[in-house]
Amino acid sequence: MQYDVIVIGAGVIGTMITRELSKLDMKLVLVEKCGDVAMGSSKANSAIVHAGFDAENGSLKAKLNVQGASIMEYYCNKLAVPYKNIGSLVVAYSDEEMKTLEVLLDRGIKNGVPDMEIIGQEKLREMEPHISDEALGALWAPTAGIVSPYELTIAAAENAVMNGAEIRRNSGVNGIEYKDGMFSVSTETGVIEAKYVINCAGVFSDKVANMIGDTSFKIIPRKGEYYLLDKTECRLVNHVLFPCPSKMGKGILVTPTAHGNVLLGPTATDLDFDSKLNVETTASGLDEIKASVRKVIPQITTRNAITSFAGLRAHRVDGECDFIIEPSKANDRFINVAGIESPGLTAAPAIARYVGEMFKEMAPGYEKKVEFISTRPAPIKMAELSAEERAEIVKKDPRYGRIICRCEGITEGEIIDAIKAPCGARDIDAVKRRTRAGMGRCQGGFCGSKVLEILARELDIPMNEVTKYGNGSKILFDKTK
Amino acid sequence: MLKYDLVVIGGGPAGMAAALRARECGVQKIIILERAATLGGILEQCIHTGFGLHYFGEELSGPEYAYRFIEELKKTDIEVKVDTMVTDILSDNVVVATNNTDGILQIQATAIILAMGCRERPRGALDMPGSRAAGVMTAGTAQKYVNIDGYMPGKKIVILGSGDIGLIMARRMTLEGAKVEMVCELMPYSGGLTRNIVQCLDDLGIPLKLSCTVVKTHGLERLEGVTIANVDEYRRPIPGTEQYVECDTLLLSVGLIPENELTRMAGIEIDPITNGAIVDEYRQTSRPGIFACGNVLQVHDLVDYVTQESQIAGEGAAKYILSKKEANNADNTIRVKAESGVRYVVPQNINRSTDKDVKIYFRVADVYKDTSVVVTCGDEVIYKRKKRKLAPGEMENVAIKLDDIAKLSGNELTVKLEV
Asked: Which fold has domain A382-465?
């Protein structure tokens, strides 16, 4: 198969770039090694829209962060993705940390972050009534927010498919050859060719670059572990709460999520090159979170934890720390989009635009699609509708009246929508990310088996071929005796 | 809006028994709302025997036990709506539900009985580090896959938690050809019934490892093994005792949580120990006209006791509906408290002017031998009886006579253990 562009990696960066390129009239494919989009860092991160005061002045990171924060809401509206502009607070616990806030404020102003302010203890307590008595003040950044990162990724993928892009899942890239102006990319599902390649392979982006002889950067996985708490805990925190940053990152935060849960984390542990699939949680990591968040909000406990999980940051270890977004020195038709750790999610919409412009300069011949559809239709979410609206929908399609996931109130109709969507769900976790079925406090104890049944029925496969998250993650073995 | 005298939420053993008793007591218009496709609740997947020994005096399977009540219901004009999920209880006892034929239902009820049952504690609620591979599931989910869907969820099994569902599944998986390596129990004793330990583990040679837990799960896609470790008296893993056990499945039987989402939404007071509503001797909650029974009120060991408790709630609801009984007068309430060795009591409140003997159900906090169960009111001992053995896995009860209740000098009864 021949394409104009192959995008490698269906995280938030790869899907947002694919969506951006689907504005152009060309043959476009996104390849992904996993069974779904958003299977790497994009599904396991802090889900924060950062205001932009952390990145070094003048860096690409700083520029794309501030831009990203300012256009995130626009994109979330277009793509029907949960987003809340709740603002963030960097909390200081000592006079020294209060001085750090000044540094952050100054850096933020230079980066172009609007409306920041250092607030005192009283104002802080007013905004966060449950905060520790030890907290002296905070840096308030009203442009920060929270977003559902996997839903942004899924929505971008769906919208790209609506605009003619192809997505090939379960298609890990094994090798790339370049001859006569054409890349030949061998994947798990066959060889595909294209004139241009965009490398958005996250923690694997150095390995993919190596395939064309580009060894200019190195990525290690920096693991972050998290707790997700029950919605009952959301009364304890109103904004994104950071401690003062250290050289390992922004520290362990306490934040509401876009769905009304509370997220605690991440830790930061550097793993070696061979551990790019290691998303195991650890006893020490989980203990660190527990100890750390008690200092922020003493009342918080993990007794009401729904789950814990870990994600990997694509961390550069080649002496630099900025995003790499440029044509490779080894081949100028191959764009690296690499080293996208925090604030990568925030910057994603800005990165997509930036790469879009870069591509147009590199390959000026492609026309704009006149029929480009910029919005993704909002999925039906029964739990968010009024009784009248729900009654109306059930009258038209009774499957929206059958609740499958009790905890989150998700109906059979919504699950079928997720399966039938462009780039639809193929496994249980994919249904969960699209609908929230199994995302609640029973963690799929009741609905897991029903979702499995619906997947088997809709995909017309035997029940024991349904997986948790693709590949070998099957749930059921043979039939009973 | 529809109008019913009694709306029963949940058509498992609790809901069915409560509805039937309310009918016997003369309540006219009754409806049961059940979220599953059939009546019977969790009994439908409990195909083993051991149900009904106390209530029917015979040994039945779960579906057989449920069938007897389903048949009784058929003889009445009690209405049943299955595949119907209650989403809210509004003020003035209006129940909101949804299903695929009526869309949204609003029912004005005179009284409501909560009988939603319980759910299993999932992996996420445990601090269990490791990978997120497939093959870690609750014992009840595995039970559904095996007994209802007819598929094996694994071949080489480790079970964490020796609750009754875990024990039952150890036997069930073995009979279906799987190898159950062991059952690990965090506590120094099992939380399951003795008869289940004997019949499901001992008889099949499955080891029960006490004071032992899973400290890590391994495997990228499907589970490949677990690391187990012994725990100290504070339930913390002891370094150096770790051991790798190869398995493709980890079944969790680590506790049941009453499903009180609706109860909380309705603003009903919850007991932090039982995680169920605080109730009086007729199982009336803090909201007049709303009653609770079965595993949504407290987790039971035996369905027979669920039935008995639900009949009490059915009777209570009937009294409320037929006499429009006023809310309990706080001055008239005797509080029942759990102390030294007793974890909780149900009911938590008794009306001094009650019209019957009252059984107080409770669980103990540890394993005790040759210990007395004592009920006191101030300095006065109302009840005292020596027990050879008490264990957290077995629900106990003491009966307080109507005459004794009327004569009580104080407003507080205390249930405790004395060596």
From this structure: Arc Repressor Mutant, subunit A (1.10.10)
Distance of alpha carbon A243 from alpha carbon A132, whole angstroms: 12
Report the residue from A280, A449, A464 with minimal CB separation from B130.
A280
Active-site residue set of A = 50
Distance CA A408, CA A430 (A): 16
The SS3 call for residue A126 is helix
Q: How many domains does chain B have?
A: 3
Class of domain A1-85+144-218+318-378: alpha beta
Q: Is B227 exposed, middle or buried (0-12, 13-18, 19+ CB in 10 A)?
A: middle
The reported pTM is 0.95
Q: Do A479 and B154 touch (CB under 8 A)?
A: no
Which residue in A has a C-alpha nearest to residue B132's C-alpha? A280
Query: What residues of chain B, 346 to 375, have a C-beta less than 8 Å from chain A?
Result: none
Q: What is the CATH number of the domain that holds B241?
A: 3.50.50.60
Q: Among B9, B101, B106, B149, which would you mutate to test the A interface (most chain A Cβ atoms within 10 Å of its Cβ)?
A: B149
Condensed to tens digits (0 to 9), the pLDDT of residues A237-257 reads 999 999 998 777 789 999 999
A465 DSSP 8-state letter? G
**B221 shares contact with chain A (CB less than 8 Å):** yes
> What's the pLDDT tens digit per position in B351-404?
998 999 999 999 999 999 999 999 999 999 999 999 999 999 889 999 999 999
Whether B161 and chain A come into contact, CB under 8 Å, resolves to no
Last residue of a domain, one of B231, B254, B277: B254
Query: Predicted ipTM?
Result: 0.94
